[in-house]
Amino acid sequence: MSKIITQLFNTNLQGLELLFIAYRRLKKDDPVMSRQLFDKFKTGLELHIRHEEQRLLPELALVSAAHELISKAQQEHQQLRQQLEWIENLLDKRIDSLEDDRTLELMLVDHIENDEFELYPACDKMLNTDAVTRVLMALYP
């Protein structure tokens, strides 16, 4: 089952990236649609994080001593959640969030890079077929 985790989770991240790009591009010209895109992006990223934390990371913890990798992912998730909440609060108050959007973009790029080149390949390498199947079954009940 080589690279199934990488392919599955990267596909999800690519969709989230597109939502974030669309949110930022429409912000000036169509703030209502932009806000709807942000809300979808936020919901999608939160779900992605939950899937990693509740399904993927526990499986990895069972088969490896990848504590540093797991801890790094959890720390990044917490930072992303905080930034999402901050931006949502600014948008609710109709306060410009341009700089905060840029900060989130940098955080996302870093997190996606870490997932794509460290976390997911480690999972693909260390998780056996049963573990990958459990992750898939949990994601698609």
Properties at a glance:
mainly alpha, Four Helix Bundle (Hemerythrin (Met), subunit A), 5 helices, coiled coil, 141 residues
Overview of this protein structure:
- Residues 63-90 form a coiled coil.
- It comes from Bowmanella pacifica.
- Keywords: Coiled coil.
- 87% of the residues lie in helices and 0% in strands.
- It is mostly helical and 141 residues long.
- It has a single domain (4-139), classed as Four Helix Bundle (Hemerythrin (Met), subunit A).
- Helix 1 (4-26) packs antiparallel against helix 4 and helix 2 (31-63) runs antiparallel to helix 5 (129-139).
- The two termini are 20 Å apart.
What can be said about this structure in brief?
The protein has five helices and no strands.
Describe how the helices and strands are arranged:
Layout: H1 4-26, H2 31-63, H3 67-92, H4 98-126, H5 129-139
The rough form would be described as elongated
Can you tell me the CATH architecture?
Answer: Up-down Bundle
Q: What is the N-to-C succession of helices and strands?
A: HHHHH
Could you report the average pLDDT, rounded to the nearest whole number?
94
> What fraction strand?
under 5%
Question: What is the first-to-last residue Cα distance?
Answer: 20 Å
The CATH class designation is Mainly Alpha
Summing up helix and strand content along with how strands pair, one would put the structural category as mainly alpha
Q: What ranges have pLDDT less than 50 throughout 5 or more consecutive residues?
A: none
Helical proportion, percent range = over 70%
| Largest sheet features | none
Number of strands: 0
Task: Count the DSSP helices.
Answer: 5
Radius of gyration: 16 Å
Please indicate the count of domains: 1
- What CATH calls the topology is Four Helix Bundle (Hemerythrin (Met), subunit A)
